[in-house]
Amino acid sequence: MQTIASLSLVNGPDTVTRALAWLESLAGQQQWPSHMGFKLGLCLDEALTNIVLYGFQGKDKDAADNRIDIAVLQEGSTLVLDISDNGLPFDPTRKQVSSLATSLEDAEIGGHGLRLMRHYLQDIQYRRTAQHNHLRLVAALDSNDR
Length: 146
Known about the structure:
Layout: E1 2-10, H1 15-30, H2 34-55, E2 67-75, E3 78-85, H3 113-120, E4 123-129, E5 132-140
Antiparallel strand pairs: 1-2, 2-3, 3-5, 4-5
Helix pairs in contact: 1-2, 2-3
């Protein structure tokens, strides 16, 4: 796989916004189909929001050593978002997705990000090494993207 772009961020209030703007710009430069840009953006938003909100709990949330690194890799029609952070361990691949509500009255706001990620992505991989979380989001161009 070839790395086509990377971004390093310090955790802070504008982390998600900056990363999404970077990914949108990259999608334009790489001329990805709009559907691919949408699904990668949605999945990056979900992953980063969880990292920013929960990954650095108990630490100074805006400390300069709270790092998040993102790389976009490509091989053929497969795009990969690699996200690395030095926050608390969390493996989303082990998280169970809650059942969908059967009525609007029973529906709750939030808690559907992992379901969306699993819908849009071909694979989600996680590993923990040397005090870092490594999340790999794999998306494939399909007939809807061309």
